[in-house]
Amino acid sequence: MSKCIYVVGIGPGSGDMMTEQAKEILEESDVIVGYTVYLDLIREQYAGKELLSTPMRQEEKRCLLCFEKAGEGKQVALVCSGDAGIYGLASLMLELGKGYPDCEIQVIPGITAASSGAAVLGAPLNHDFCVISLSDLLTPWEQIEKRLIAAAEGDFAMAIYNPSSRKRADYLARACRILMDHGVEPERACGYVENIGREGTRAVTLTMKELVRAEVNMFTTVFIGNSESEIIGGKLVTKRGYRI
Amino acid sequence: MSKCIYVVGIGPGSGDMMTEQAKEILEESDVIVGYTVYLDLIREQYAGKELLSTPMRQEEKRCLLCFEKAGEGKQVALVCSGDAGIYGLASLMLELGKGYPDCEIQVIPGITAASSGAAVLGAPLNHDFCVISLSDLLTPWEQIEKRLIAAAEGDFAMAIYNPSSRKRADYLARACRILMDHGVEPERACGYVENIGREGTRAVTLTMKELVRAEVNMFTTVFIGNSESEIIGGKLVTKRGYRI
Q1: Exposed, middle or buried, B72 (CB in 10 Å: 0-12/13-18/19+)?
Q2: Residue of B26, B60, B130, B232 best to disrupt the A interface, most CBs of A under 10 A
Q3: Per-residue pLDDT band at A244 (split at 50, 70, 90)
Q4: Which of A16, B83, B194, B206 has the greatest number of beta carbons closer than 10 A?
């Protein structure tokens, strides 16, 4: 294998939350491919590179562009926000890679919103936890519902990605009601963070019954504590252990 | 609040997998506190600092040391491997912080083994997933078992931390059997990674029925795919979506 395409997680947005490894790979690349919004986050820093994007929902095209450019002998990096392997394009690249056997694909991890959002809120994921996306673009809602029920029954702390969008304004409220129907108390300690690692970061701690009515958007990550989580001095804290 | 203690996730071990933010904070600190093994990873780089450690299981003492040093007017960073808020000391610091109202505690996220291990294996966590620790030091086994069952029933991909130790040599096998009793097929695509981000990194992909007999240790992170995960070209891949 002579060619290697890097699928790089760039973290939440601010450059200082990227790893050195990710930065070095972007510096060594000829071509950086990504969704326009993510490219904008790094455009200034890598102005000398060939920066290529495709619009939202054209993820397959974006991946194929990487193989095309690698075929021309270019060193290619595909950037994803957060971690490239958590709702990112790592798996699609590996699937499509079957058609390009001379191309190695290497995934470079980044700080995902579960980590960066948790740090802003305190320590909501400091014990076993689930990460669930409420986007039903590629997943049937029944599957999402099944996972919410399992997460409640397992008393997991949770990080909820994509809690809302224009078309799915009521999804977080629906998810909260499902959780409450399956044992999550209305007083459960919760929180959410908007614009993690970008301008306008805003963290809110609240109870489950308040979360049902919270206004969140596509730049929000929601956190739900487990049954022992507490709000301590304005921070959402899930304990490392249980009293045994 | 005049004092701020940083609880810093240093990632899996190699310096280039730390964020710039974490590096800057360590550089600006007078005192770096941590478990000896983690301090050893950074000892050379921060040789001019006061480096303080306490042995394993003396985590509370380690945290109190931070408040003590901050009280002396020192700038203190407490380092944790991976992410400080995922099985790290962030929550214990926030709990103990109640006794030190003039001390702010800020959590600095790092790359957790779920992210770094997944990247080595391919993209096993590229859809909804759970993170579960098999250590029953602070959690009753019944709780761990309940979570494994919930994870299987919700068809989550999984990252399993602390799959084994000298005293708990058979825990991974026990966990695998519980998962298989609750719907995880013997042919389910799985994998594990040893010594992530350190010398001797080793990644293995295998099926659930092979995982039951796998020899893992305390430096291994185990990954279990969901029902649609596949091994593609030696990589463990969980798809971004479902066929809908």
Answers
A1: exposed
A2: B130
A3: very low
A4: B83
Q: What is d(CA A133, CA B117) in angstroms, rounded to the nearest whole number?
A: 21
Q: What is the pLDDT confidence band of residue B145, given thresholds at 50, 70 and 90?
A: very high
Classify residue B73 by burial, with Cβ atoms within 10 Å: 0-12, 13-18, 19+.
exposed
**Amino acid sitting at position B4:** C
Chain B residues 19-38 with CB within 8 Å of chain A: 19-21, 23-24
ipTM above 0.90, yes or no: yes
Measure the CA–CA gap between A195 and A201, rounded to whole angstroms. Answer: 5
Taking the whole predicted model, whether its pTM rises above 0.90 is answered as yes
| DSSP result, B91-117 | HHHHHHGGG-TTEEEEEE----HHHHH
Could you tell me if residue B57 is left (phi over 0), alpha (psi between -120 and 50 degrees) or otherwise beta? left
Pull the structure tokens for residue B92: 């214990």
Integer-rounded Cα radius of gyration of chain A: 19
